[in-house]
């Protein structure tokens, strides 16, 4: 696991100390979600520092998007690995996440202890409206990129129907889409957008299989050790074990970015585990949007509140801190593990058209899943009480149209104008909506 890739493709090779300070800077300023974070890394690493050239950066980005987990974090980990081997990859991955994790922890504490304070409740009310627009914006952006054939549109529609009306598990939808894309790519690769050739470059020398096996053994041990310790110490029914198992499962199926898995996660933590309410889940997403680091840090908010509300044998604060730490661990250790295990095979994966077809189909299905998230959030933010009903396999949500929260709807319209008409940045929209939420709290 100590092998290091050749650095012949890089235009400059920084010292480890210089790289450390740069990764720390990136970790503190990487606002704006995956698109903004990737653009920022390109500017710093390719254009300014010239530590990695354009082809390798783009290859690394494509590789990261093939994997489950937050792609921007994995891209940073891969570039760190290219520059300084394992210690460079660990440094880049950890520093990309750590500043945002500390900010998210502070916001979780403020949320847990500050509810009932007018200004805080008002800010959260305004942020909810911003979240609706942010998710809709992600839906449009990913849809434009992914839905380029009738097959992709059909997969997106089927994914929406499957998860919204039939409550099928997200992993099942991902698996079915992958199989469809894998099969179609052989006879009609154009339908999944993988026609043409793939240019490859050599990124690793040495014993690739030995490197991958060692990385897997070490990574899996680190990943599951805290969950096993919690199970042995507190029993398998303890909330910490449930947190560890649930978010470990998410780490395996988070293809398509954070917004894809949020739909599955939101409904599971609200309806299955009952760790929080739907409006609280929207609050968590809004808070995560305000922090540097990956959007998937919203999982830390969920883990904190879940343990905070079932603290035995700890105090609520201690339990919340442990729950947040455990959630962050099982979310990001696997993401970094995939990079260390798979990086030596980067070009083999890139050149596999059938695998590329499977991933393209997953991305299309993700559009349908994000549409489900958009509708689910909108119902819970705009209409007070929303009840779930079942008739055999069919599931639907009932609400009273007369119960429309006009203040929330007005704020959502304002957020939409800021984002789509005036093209304001994500963080700016959230701040403005939080301020408007405070004003509405004291004006009506």
UniProtKB/TrEMBL annotation:
Keyword Transmembrane: yes
Superkingdom to which the source organism belongs: Bacteria
Keyword Membrane included in the entry's annotation: yes
UniProt keyword annotations, A-Z: Cell membrane, Membrane, Transmembrane, Transmembrane helix
GO MF: chromate transmembrane transporter activity
Membrane-spanning ranges: 90-113, 125-143, 149-182, 212-234, 240-264, 285-308, 320-346, 358-383, 403-420, 425-443
Subcellular location: Cell membrane
GO cellular component terms, A-Z: plasma membrane
Bilayer topology: Multi-pass membrane protein
PANTHER family with a match to the protein in the record: CHROMATE ION TRANSPORTER (EUROFUNG)
Family: Belongs to the chromate ion transporter (CHR) (TC 2.A.51) family.
Protein name: Chromate transporter
